[in-house]
Amino acid sequence: MGSLYKWNCNPLQDFLLKSIIYNRNISAAELQSEAYAAFTYFLQNVLENQNDAVYLDFKIIDKNNYFKVVGENAISAIWLSGIFPQNSESILKNNMFIIGSRKYTYNKKKKILTYTEIKNG
Predict the structure, then answer these.
(1) Residue 39: its pLDDT value, please?
(2) What pTM was estimated for this model as a whole?
(3) What SS3 class is residue 99?
(4) C-alpha to C-alpha distance for 76 and 6, rounded to whole angstroms
(5) Is 23 left (phi over 0), alpha (psi -120 to 50) or beta?
(6) pLDDT reported for residue 4
(7) How many CA atoms lie within 13 A of 22 on its CB side?
(8) For the chain, which ranges sit under pLDDT 70?
């Protein structure tokens, strides 16, 4: 998930890409703190329940200037993918979410969000 990038579709990705463009190391602790604050502010203004922003948990890994953003739980992974559902607690409990014709599943062990197409009857 997250290998395709489109401007202005996901403000969380936009923040990270703009930081990279301005030659900032997004894996540095200082920028991760800034990203966390910016993401929390955004989520509090988008989510029906502002308190759900407490579930935001992610890390940014730098491997030879290749950055990987990892959602540490199912809802964070979904938010980082640009989807902002209102049922955060249910997603955290089930590690699964259906939107449209896609079923998103979060693997807690590997910390990977995947989706499968749901076929209609």
Answers:
(1) 94
(2) 0.84
(3) strand
(4) 19
(5) left
(6) 52
(7) 8
(8) 1-9, 121
